[in-house]
Amino acid sequence: MKNKIIAIIVAIVLIIPLSRGWYEFLLDNFFDAELASSTQLKFEKISDTEMEVVGYDSDLHGSITIPEKIRIGLDIYKVTSIGASAFYRCSSLTSIKIPEGVTRIGSYAFWGCSRLTSINIPKGVTSIGKEAFSWCSRLTSIGGSAFEGCSSLTSIKIPKGVTSIGNWAFKGCSSLNSIKIPESVTSIGAYAFFRCSSLTSINIPESLTSIGKEAFWGCYNLEIVIDNSEKKVKVGWNAFENCKSVKWLK
To answer: What is the tens place of the pLDDT at every residue in 139-195?
Structure first.
């Protein structure tokens, strides 16, 4: 079928002069159809090859996927960042998929997105601005590998309401030295902080009931304080292997 379509295109090109209109027609109908930008998002050019999401239309609601690339005329741009306050107070947004090419999420980018329940953060993200997800009251979990390999990440504050930290969530975040875990967290997944070698101290709330295997393996400088009884927390194999110290308060 694909070969037939190509043959038809070649025939059209041979018969009809390739004006700009026809070229755009062929692009629109046969090539890179997914490059068309969403009508609900606003973009700003930040280089000759890159675009940034800077805002949204007032009727944006529900789930949305940010395109990996967009085309303006005959020019194609990669979407590499989400600007400051891009989705500020977008209370009707429920879930968003960010493409792999994005490396930066600006300050207050999703501030006040009170109905946002699901968001994927690609591995290529190296910078997340302050209060990027503040007042996202329905984000209740940090998914598996959410920040895995973010070697430049130095600190993070997990918002209130989050109940679980997924497997490999912060694995290999070798520069992470500060993290605050709220009272709402009940479980920390396997390998969640594996080899976070810059962590020096962490307080784990009484609400915690489960720590996965090798969750803190290789956190050589880490002093862990758990505000619960050892009998009430299910601890996986080698969860604290090679940590500096572990202290149970109850």
So the answer is: 888 888 888 888 878 888 887 788 999 999 999 999 999 888 989 999 999 999 999
CATH of the domain at 156: 3.80.10.10
Joined together, the tokens standing for residue 203 give 């307080």
Phi, psi of 20 (to 5 degrees): -60, -40
Contacts of 120 (CB under 8 A, 6+ apart): 96, 97, 98, 143
pLDDT digits (tens, 9 = 90+) for 87-140: 999 999 999 999 999 999 999 999 999 899 888 888 788 788 888 888 887 788
Residue 157: the pLDDT is 80
Residue 146 and residue 56 share a domain: no
The domain of 124 spans 32-138
20: tokens are: 């700009």
Residue 187's DSSP bridge partners are 164, 210
Pair 63, 134 in one domain: yes
